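Z., the sequence and structure:
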Amino acid sequence: MPKICRLRTQIASRVLLPLLCCTASFCIAKEELIWLGADFPPAFIKKGPNANQGHIDKIEQYLKHRLSEYQHSSENANFSRILTSLKSRSDACSAALFKTPEREKYIEFSKPIYLILSNGIIFKRSSLAKFRPFIDQDKSISLSKVLQSKKTVLGISNNRSYGNQLNAIINQYRDTSAVYHRSGSNQLEGLLQMLQFNRIDYLIGYFNELQYVARQQGINPNELVFYPASELHTPYILGYIGCSKSKQGRQVIRSINQQLDSIRKQFVQYYAYWLDKPTQKLHRELTERYFKQ
């Protein structure tokens, strides 16, 4: 055999032999899985010195590690686009969802993964006189009574779920002048700015996100007041992981449901980082009590 032919044969064998001998697990490309998240600190933190260190950022990273059979990527979107993508795609998931009857129509949900301390009503301390008539003896505020009065304006983020109980109340007044809807990215930051400029009177959010966002905007958190909503029957909301209602989405959720204990333990650690010590203790006790039922 001529020397040039022998050389070609050697090169071909070195290139082709590994491909012919590789196992199926290495030859077949992994299915893609897209994780959808919002710019919503301290759950998702997309910029600054704490980028990717939010409690949902961290649980998403943990899930990517545990679900190594997939090729993972992440996309940043507002709440509206997250829901639209989950509805239209077959390969999307989100680690920060609340379950509602409407969403169950097009999202495959995991079993409850974690507890989030409930939303509350947030307004400026200088506006306390407006809200004093609605403050109950147990230091909570009735959202339905405030909305019914139509003397104040609530700012909400479009397509953000505030939990089934508060959603039901808001929906009664959604198309009235008592509720302002904000779309786009950075919705909480935008609502907080509107609150500062008196374009809205109050908003709904979590205690830890209030403190984080206020500090980021140079607002003294002590200038803001947080009251629990009296309509809430529990001091927490259940959080879920949700994926597209597809064959792949159902497969991902089955895998997640088989790892609930380890995921929950990780979440308690990640969430605690953004709480003060008394609230850390409360969250840990509530989590243990609920998941031991």
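The chain has a mean pLDDT of 88. The domain at 120-228 is CATH 3.40.190.10 (D-Maltodextrin-Binding Protein; domain 2).

Let me know what you think.
H.
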